[in-house]
Amino acid sequence: MREKRNIIIIGAGLCGSLLALRLAQRGYNVNVYEKRPDLRKTDISAGRSINLAFSARGNKAIKLVGLEDKVKQLCIPMNGRLIHDREGNTFMSNYSGRDYEYINSISRGGLNALLLDEAEALSNVNIFFNQKCKSVDIYNTTVLLEDYASKREYVEDADIIFATDGAGSVLRKDYIKARDFLFSYSQNYLTHGYKELTIPAAENGDYKTTKNALHIWPRGDFMVIALPNLDGSFTVTLFLSYNEGDYNFNNLTTPEIVLEFFEKEFPDALALMPNLVEEFFENPTAPLGTIKCYPWHHRGNTMLMGDSAHAIVPFYGQGMNASFEDVVVFDKILDQHLDLKLTVENWEIISNAYEKERKKDTDAIADLAIDNFHEMKDHVNNSIFQEKRKIEMALEKAFPEDYSSKYSLVTFNEHIGYREAMLRGRAQDKAILNMLTDNVISATNLEDKDYLKLLLEKVKTVTNDILTDDNIAKNMHN
């Protein structure tokens, strides 16, 4: 009979609640400590990413815990980006040439509540709210906690501690303080921040604009996006520099200036946002940053997971999906070591194997998210970029088994890692853009199957040449 272990998880957000559910399904005893109130009883979402993009990698994790049908009820399919120019003209840029590939807008709170309900329904899971983790003793595997109501401090111990407490992780801070192992850590912020706003539902409850799309108002140095909610509203996010440009968060200080900014840059969005001024000054402005660190574990008995290990900016819509994929990868590593008795020493073997497989992929999606920031706020309006997307859509539609764009590789191909998707996707982008610039190919005649077949072969050949050159350069550098 396999030995059961007692596990503490710090943080009951999306990653923590999913991890608790999966580990409990595997038979472990799990206690989860969350510093915030129970979101099922208290609204704690104001100004903080109330909906997210949910796609194939996240769904793979949801399948793992048997919740695919329940989660689907929370989703609104988004088939592509609906681009808005300053004059109010729009055009649709689909995410894929394959009709069955799309992303979903999903309520953060709704999904988190479902995962908490499912975890708590298991007898070997306990979840404690309003319990602040003050520190973790990484040598004795104990957690110092404080009850918000009574202010009482107390210590809990476990065999294994997971920290899924986000970008401000307490465990990661304790790793930084430790002196007996080498811990690398970087935190990089964009010059831009974000603020969440709302397009409310129409009086009859309908959507005021196209429902099944991710709306983007790209303006070069800044942008607005909007994702649909189940109640007919849209969550709108303004991404803007703190202090650069004619308009920035530091100088949008009066209702008059805010209205002037939106009237000039986003007039069609403004017409849908009756509460803009009130929300602008009520909702917080939050930073956008990337966190990388290594290693994620200490002596096999403490482990960082999700945003606590690899926080990323939101522009690929993969933050939640990447954290969910962490659970899938860790679960696979556990399956590969079923013959091991789960001692601390063997947990070290498991932790090393997990990091070796996962770290390269989380670094890749962090870099891709930065790339997509520039693509969304600027490149989507570029004519050569639009030609590239037309070619990619045509190739995916005509040859669904033979071609996937970088976006499709990252978002819809959950069977390959982020790093592999990044390397091949970047090479494909470079191949198509180079050939478009040199007039070797064009976005005309895309209805001609023979021309598309020739186009596919050219793209494949040049892509493979680029990948070969990159490998040679990397080997020479090493």
Question: What fold name stands as the CATH topology of the largest domain?
Answer: FAD/NAD(P)-binding domain
* Reported CATH architecture of the largest domain: 3-Layer(bba) Sandwich
Q: What is the rounded Rg?
A: 23 Å
Q: Approximately how much helix is present in the residues?
A: 40-55%
**Total individual domains:** 3
| Overall shape | globular
Give the neighbour order of strands across the main sheet: 6-5-14-15-16-13-17
Tell me the strand percentage band. 15-25%
Name of the CATH superfamily of the largest domain:
FAD/NAD(P)-binding domain
- Count of β-strands: 19
> Taking all residues together, what is the mean pLDDT?
93
- What is the name of the CATH class of the largest domain? Alpha Beta
Low-confidence stretches: none
Plain-language structure description:
With 478 residues, the chain is an alpha/beta fold. The chain has three domains: 6-75 and 107-187 and 289-374, FAD/NAD(P)-binding domain (3-Layer(bba) Sandwich); 189-287, D-Amino Acid Oxidase, Chain A, domain 2, CATH 3.30.9; 382-477, no CATH class. It has 15 helices and 19 strands. The chain has helices spanning 14-25, 56-64, 68-72, 108-120, 170-177, 255-265, 267-270, 276-282, 307-310, 319-336, 344-377, 383-398, 406-411, 418-437, 449-477, and strands at residues 6-10, 29-33, 51-54, 75-78, 80-84, 90-94, 103-107, 125-128, 131-137, 142-147, 153-157, 160-163, 184-199, 214-218, 223-228, 234-241, 285-294, 297-298, 302-304. It has a seven-stranded mixed beta sheet with strand order 6-5-14-15-16-13-17, sandwiched between helices. Strands 8-2-1-12-19-18 form a six-stranded mixed beta sheet, sandwiched between helices. The protein has a three-stranded antiparallel beta sheet with strand order 3-7-4. Strand 15 and strand 16 (234-241) form a beta hairpin. The longest helix is centred in the C-terminal third of the chain and has 34 residues, at 344-377. The protein is globular, with a radius of gyration of 23 Å. The two termini are 47 Å apart.
